[in-house]
């Protein structure tokens, strides 16, 4: 199946990045958000990033113009009726996501594939909100989308091989590297990353080493580009806690117990870079 017409739902941090990458790769893209301000901001952010790429001579002025010409803002979910592929990047909340998928199922053409960029919610459950679970799949981009190469493609219980293949081919067209993952709490990326971050927080909590030294251990000792506590601040400590809770509940195993210090920081409103304070001050 050839996919040309794409719709991205949610014009926030992830959705705008996803829309940009699709448009840069030649797809006709609708960027949808129910909040007009968020939609405007998402479109402006894309233009800003493309202008920066022109300034740095990574793309030409005409690449930028053509990309923007392939991008159209949308504030009506009904616009999905003209699309071959829809990817959702709205708030990480199962009730809100299943409502959107149930609506999309009624609006989008029969052949359309419906994907979600969820970082932790079960694909199988989201797919069950539709009458086409074999055409529902997880397509998990990393932040910031235009920079990060990885896409986890997550099969729900009922996702068909054909749907998987179409999405894998499309990921290659976006110049990203796909990995195939089964529907399991945290998928692969967050199942590996978050316990490491949680353990770094436990090490701080138990006085093993200071914030700076924990980060230095992983940067200089393991060649990580960024220490785990810095990374946690960038991701957002509330998000880290949320994903740890998904792992803890999903596996029922105490090895995923969120560190009490992480809970305390989130309760204090120390959410990392976005709130001005996390393990570091910004
Ligand atoms: P965000 O809060 O920046 O953006 C969400 C956008 O969705 C907002 O603009 C909001 O107005 C819009 N929205 C909410 N409900 C809507 C609806 N019913 N219809 C249309 N638009 C709606 O969130 P962010 O960070 O972009 O995350 C989006 C999704 O991507 C979440 O599922 C998250 O778990 C996932 N994700 C986030 C990553 C991150 O680092 N922030 C990384 C990978 C996945």
Automatic annotation (TrEMBL):
SUPFAM superfamilies: 6-phosphogluconate dehydrogenase C-terminal domain-like, NAD(P)-binding Rossmann-fold domains. Residues 5-183 form the 3-hydroxyacyl-CoA dehydrogenase NAD binding domain. The keyword Oxidoreductase applies. Residues 186-282 form the 3-hydroxyacyl-CoA dehydrogenase C-terminal domain. One of its GO terms (biological process) is butyrate metabolic process. One of its GO terms (molecular function) is NAD+ binding. It holds the Pfam family 3HCDH_N. The record marks 140 as: Important for catalytic activity. Keywords: NAD, Oxidoreductase. Pathway: Lipid metabolism; butanoate metabolism. The keyword DNA-binding does not apply. NAD(+) binds at residues 10-15, 33, 92, 97, 119, 143, 274. PROSITE patterns: 3HCDH. Belongs to the 3-hydroxyacyl-CoA dehydrogenase family. This is 3-hydroxybutyryl-CoA dehydrogenase. It comes from Virgibacillus salinus. The lineage of its organism: Bacteria, Bacillati, Bacillota, Bacilli, Bacillales.
């Amino acid at each position: 199946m050839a996919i040309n017409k794409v719709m991205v739902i949610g014009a926030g941090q992830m959705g705008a990045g996803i829309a940009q990458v699709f448009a840069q790769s030649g797809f006709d893209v609708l960027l949808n958000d129910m909040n007009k301000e968020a939609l405007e901001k998402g479109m402006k952010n894309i233009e800003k990033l493309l202008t920066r790429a022109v300034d740095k001579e990574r793309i030409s002025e005409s690449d930028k113009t053509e990309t923007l010409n392939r991008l159209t803002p949308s504030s009506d979910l009904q616009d999905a009726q003209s699309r071959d592929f829809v990817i959702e990047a709205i708030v990480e909340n199962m009730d809100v996501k299943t409502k959107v998928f149930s609506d999309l199922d009624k609006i989008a053409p029969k052949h359309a594939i419906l994907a979600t960029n969820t970082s932790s919610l079960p694909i199988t459950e989201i797919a069950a909100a539709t009458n086409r679970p074999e055409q529902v799949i997880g397509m998990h981009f990393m932040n910031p989308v235009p920079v990060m190469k990885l896409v986890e493609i997550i099969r729900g219980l009922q996702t068909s091989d054909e749907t998987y293949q179409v999405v894998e081919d499309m990921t290659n067209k976006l110049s990203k590297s796909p990995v195939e993952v089964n529907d399991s709490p945290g998928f692969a990326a967050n199942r590996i990353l978050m316990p490491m971050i949680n353990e770094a927080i436990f090490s701080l909590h138990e006085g093993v080493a200071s914030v700076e030294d924990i980060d230095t251990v992983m940067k200089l000792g393991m060649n990580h580009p960024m220490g785990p506590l810095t990374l946690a601040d960038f991701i957002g400590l509330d998000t880290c806690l949320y994903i740890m809770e998904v792992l803890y509940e999903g596996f029922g195993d105490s090895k995923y117990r969120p560190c009490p210090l992480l809970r305390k920081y989130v309760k204090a409103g120390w959410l990392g870079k976005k709130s001005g304070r996390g393990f570091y001050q910004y």
